[in-house]
Amino acid sequence: MTNTIKHGQFNRRGFLGASSIAFGALGLASLVPRAFAAPAKLSDLTLAVATYRGQDSYFTDDAGTSNTPYKVDYAEFAGGNLIVEALASGSLDIGGMSEIPPIFSIQSHREPKLIAVLQGDVNNQVILIPKESNIESIAQLKGKRVGYVRSTTSHYFLIKALKEQGLTFNDITPVALTPQDGFSAFQSGQLDAWVIYGVFIQLAKFRSGARVLKTALGYLSGNYLIGARPAALEDPLRKQAIQDYLQRQARTLEWMNNNPEPWAEKSAKLLGVDKAVFLDVYNNRSQPYSVIEVNDQAIASQQEVADLFFNAGVLSERLDVSPLWDRQFKLLPI
Fold it and tell me: Which residues on adjacent β-strands are paired with residue 147?
């Protein structure tokens, strides 16, 4: 039987048959809609997620949030700048970072989309001084050798603390070091002060009696940003998985807030550090962990960081951070 198409009418069977023959003759058969292909499912999807050693991804079993309807492929990173690069290259779907790495990504036009905010501790970022030091104020850092980690919250915190005293980097001897190198330099007496974050604070306190000159409370926002690969947000199924993952991450962090003893014990095993170090972190934190939706305050906070870096000469131009942000993800109360 012959299929016909009358002028002014579409016969569906005839149209599809003729179209497939025409496309096939042109080598374009792959462009014909696959009407009988199985629909994509969450269970077939793998979400690529960045993590840091000992962070919330290591506690999903404890929190009961590991049973995702999709697969999760975790990759460890040493810093937010590397996570931004991995998001830009397409090897990651989502990952966390401070407010700073996305700012520097604007100039390279390899920006992530910032989809949520993880609010965390700012007392785990400090200016340390040696046990026997007679330095008692930020103003006394003038002329001193001060270690910091370039293009991180450590860098921003130091600029802001100095500015408050009418000082700049020109008034100190700044020494840019990785956290590991900074720890060695501080322990060996090569630094008069060290601006650092995380477990290195407790290690320096426990091993050499280092003292905290100033915490970042009042200097840092406590906002750690969750970034996504822009192309991942254009895939409805992957976007659905990201929404689910954010909600699970919020629940995992809530478990960590409410279970300091098992959290500290497991963290100690993961990082090879005494449990007391992590209990010290917990007992001195400025606020519990939480994941919140994008809001005006978070955007304004990051803009303040970008402006400070520009005014300090770290950035060559004033940057607008607002295009980095995406407000489409919503979070349910836990």
Answer: 175, 194
Cα angle, residue 297 at apex, residues 292 and 302 outer, rounded to 5°? 95
CA-based nearest residue to 315, from 100, 149, 55, 161: 100
Determine phi and psi for 308, rounding to 5 degrees.
-65, -40
Q: What is the pLDDT of residues 130-139, one digit of tens each?
A: 999 999 999 9
Ramachandran region, residue 38 (left: φ > 0; alpha: ψ -120 to 50; beta: rest): beta
Task: Look up residue 166 and give its two tokens.
Answer: 């009418």
CA–CA separation, 294 and 330 (whole Å): 9
- List phi, psi (to 5°) of 301: -65, -45
Q: How many CB atoms lie within 10 A of CB 192?
A: 20
pLDDT tens digits for range 97-141 = 999 999 999 988 889 999 999 999 999 999 999 999 999 999 999
Residue type, 117: V
Q: List the alpha helices (DSSP H) in 188-295.
A: 199-208, 236-258, 260-271, 275-283
**For the whole model, what pTM was predicted?**
0.82
CA distance 19 to 13: 10
